[in-house]
Amino acid sequence: MATVVVEHVSKAYQRGTVPALRDMSFDVRSGELFGLIGPDGAGKTTLLRILTTLLLADQGSARVADLDVVKDYHAIRRLVGYMPGRFSLYQDLSVAENLAFFATVFGTTVAANYHLVSDIYVQLEPFKQRLAGNLSGGMKQKLALCCALIHEPKVLFLDEPTTGVDPVSRKEFWDMLGRLRDRGITIVVSTPYMDEAARCDRVALVQHGQIIALDSLPAMLASHATETFAVRGATGGPFHMLRDLRAYPFTKYCFAFGQEHHLVLLPNAPGGAAVEAYMRERGHATVSVQRIAPNIEDVFIELSQPPSAKEPAHG
Amino acid sequence: MAEWAIEAVNLTRRFGAFTAVNAINLQVAQGEIFGFLGANGAGKTTAMRIFCGLLEPTSGQATVAGFDAMTQSEKIKQQIGYMSQKFSLYGKLTVRQNIRFFAGIYGLSRAQVKSKTAEIVERLGLADAADKLVDDLPLGWKQRISFAVATVHQPKVVFLDEPTGGVDPMVRRQFWDMIFEAAAQGMTVFVTTHYMDEAEYCDRVSIMVDGSIAAIGTPAELYAQHNASSVEEVFVALARKATRHGD
Amino acid sequence: MATDRKLRGAAIFWAFIVKEFKHVVRDRKSLAILLGLPVVMMTLFGFALSNEVKDTRFVVVDLTPDAATLALTDRLDQSKYFSFAGQVRNEAEIEQVFRRGEARLAVLFGAQFDRGNAGQRQLRLVADASDANTANIVTNYATAIIAQFQSELPGALPTSAGIVVETRMLYNPQLKSSYMFVPGVMTLILMLLGAMMTSVSIVREKERGTMEVLLVSPMNPLMVIISKAVPYMVLCFVDVLIILALSYGVLDMPGGANIPLLLAECLLFIVTTLALGLVISNKVETQQTAMFISLVGLLMPALVFSGFMFPIENMPLPLKVISNVVPTKWFYMIASNVMIKGLGFAAVIKPTVILAGMTLVLLLISLKSFKQRL
Known about the structure:
- The complex is a heterotrimer of chains A (315), B (247) and C (374).
- Chain A is an alpha/beta fold and 315 residues long.
- Chain A has eleven helices and 14 strands.
- Chain A has helices at residues 44-51, 73-79, 95-105, 110-124, 137-149, 167-182, 217-223, 237-247, 272-281, 296-303, 307-310, and strands at residues 2-13, 18-29, 33-37, 59-64, 67-68, 80-83, 155-159, 186-191, 202-207, 210-215, 228-232, 251-257, 260-265, 288-292.
- The longest helix of chain A is centred in the middle third of the chain and has 16 residues, at 167-182.
- Chain B has a domain at 6-82 and 157-239: 3-Layer(aba) Sandwich (Rossmann fold).
- In chain B, 36% of the residues lie in helices and 25% in strands.
- Chain B has helices spanning 44-51, 73-79, 95-105, 110-123, 139-150, 169-184, 196-199, 219-226, 231-239, and strands at residues 6-15, 18-28, 33-38, 59-64, 67-68, 80-84, 157-161, 188-192, 204-209, 212-217.
- In chain B, strands 6-7-8-3-9-10 form a six-stranded mixed β-sheet, with helices on both faces. Chain B has a four-stranded antiparallel β-sheet with strand order 2-1-4-5, covered by helices on one side.
- In chain B, helix 3 (95-105) packs parallel to helix 5 and helix 5 (139-150) runs parallel beside helix 6.
- The longest helix of chain B has 16 residues, at 169-184.
- With 374 residues, chain C is mainly alpha-helical.
- Helices cover 63% and strands 6% of the residues of chain C.
- Chain C is built from 13 helices and four strands.
- In chain C, helix 6 (182-208) packs antiparallel against helix 8, helix 6 (182-208) packs antiparallel against helix 10 and helix 9 (259-283) runs antiparallel to helix 12.
- The two termini of chain C are 31 Å apart.
- Chain A binds chain B through residues 38-42, 127, 130, 134-139, 163-171, 192-194, 207, 237-240, 242, 255-259, 297, 300-301, 304, and chain B through 38-41, 138-140, 162, 165-171, 173, 176-177, 180-181, 183-184, 194-197, 200-201, 203, 219, 230, 232, 235-236, 239-240, 242, 244-247.
């Protein structure tokens, strides 16, 4: 059963001149932790605002919990929780005051629904008298999540909750989202961090207002199994390594990936051993080339190659 | 004494009773890519502001490009470039106008401004976009233009504050290509990031926890010291020990 | 169920008021503006910028002194506004005296002042107009005193041309002007605070993203807006009380005004300004724009067109017409009628009805333009 249904939704800004969403369609299943993954400007925020009834689509329709986002906006507002991208709390109110205020606005009290937020709020409790503006990024996001949860929403929409948050806080935040999903809340979360795809049940990769891939992470990786090599080497530094790898005649593209470089070759390339030999020739004595399973970023890069680069070279 | 591009000796900055930066020591060599990591609120921004000559240290010493951060901050500003996540470009000016404006600010001569502008437009492949408003360009382009503008005066040191936030994997890597190139030409790059894979691209990294440097070294040295296989593992292990939660 | 919802509504309402007060109290700047502005403006207008002129030195050119000229000189000297600085012989000497700053006003009596018939008695006032405002006031005061003196003489004493006797002195017989400013200051303060504080506080929520959360709440969006307006209504009313306390306590405003009527009219005007603030907040996205529009778009017309600073009667016709759509004009009319003239409701029905109509229109516009979405 689908909790969120998006059908052919398009939206453009500035009198239709700047397209944000182009004919987007997808479903979010009930009880799913669904990730909208893509860079800034891909259209994630616009989509979430349409789903939370804050914006009207130019074309297409969307339903949340079987309610139309245009006609039934009032009913939807009763049953969703929403955490906008910007830090959306009152900076000059304390942690406790923020939570109490949002509880009241949503027609409940902190005491009545404390169980919903207790395992998150327990981390904030030592700072509950502190003004929200003086919290660290990770703590602010936890407080915002508490505020979005306090009225026991059926569906939770989170717009880039982990942007600008350090890796440790991000991990903790995703642990919380996992626990909320286990409790039966459907969660739609957007993020620019590709590695967070692993924490979602299913992800949609979004770019230029379109979904370029949608699946569970393992299925997505399996269906986009472009042959990818990891090149490691201790000499030369990334600049020379990349320069030489890109100069290799069979290279389709090559980018730095953490401790190694990921190399995708043209279809007619001779293979990994030939790359190794080529690099040794160029003075990279300690180079090693290994075939690897591509990760989500590899998939995104492959999918966002301009069409011309995707054409196999002739010969 | 070797001439460090950036050096901090017992550098401390307090805000009232709060010690944002607590006696940190580090040296960055000319031409090095130095990753300055830390959790939110660990004191990165404060330290970075001191290095850029925007904030005075409470005690200790900081030198950048051979100048003292406390007494010669005006000289430092001529030797450094700075780019933050919030771009310093003017959205309502064209790419070309932005480059010209900032080149002018950094005191380049008229002829230099002209040749630099042409060079950047050429290097970034912006020929078609050079006369478009910056506001109308994709985020990834803006970031690369920002970087080009921040280094238009060929500074000895460039400070990058989370330069790649929110861009796609491809653009992020194209950005790092620019960093690699700048470093290969001898520029010192001092960069903060939340992407741990980017930390691996750095020659050396430091990890700040609660105002102090908890670890410093090449990525390989850090794995060895902390029995880890990535900078991310080291970071998580150290940051979990943090007790501070303020920004 | 219905009462349950009502209770919940009341709780939300109360939560909003408490929250808004916390914002104001914790932000020293807005607190200073909100409570300090009335005090500062009242002090400025009431004392520092007072039109009141005390012991202005004047000289007399009286070539043929007689009983009447001496009596009038004496009368001027006796008043607390003027003090006699001596005789000079001619106009050239007047100039010297003015240059040296020894006097600001000269009274020139025509020859044979006393014996002249009505229409022949001549008197000229020459004022040092290097400070045009003060010169104007000084001549006004002198004119008033001379007019009073004249009325006690047999026959009329015409004053020379160019001296305008302002009508407001009719209601301000002692020529004491410090409290004359109160209705004007009150109009300005309410316009500024009511419109600016409301619009800025709503736009701040837009800017910080909290409005998004409030919109995606079960709360009726209209309720959000009303809940935000009410705390500022209360605060503006507090300002009215501060102003009145200062007027009666410090500026010696004479009693006699119908206070309940005045408070009711103030409340009406506060609603007008809040409605203006709501209209502004619906149209703009940043606090700076809101503040700018409030200052330039509201305060300037309030200053120019209320009749407080510049008499509307003296304006060219197009400006006179424009002044009619400025709400401050009507409130200033009401406030000065009630406070200074001590008139009752009957005297202010017309401006009250006009103001109420404007308020209604503004409220309708603000409700109509309120966006339930972003």
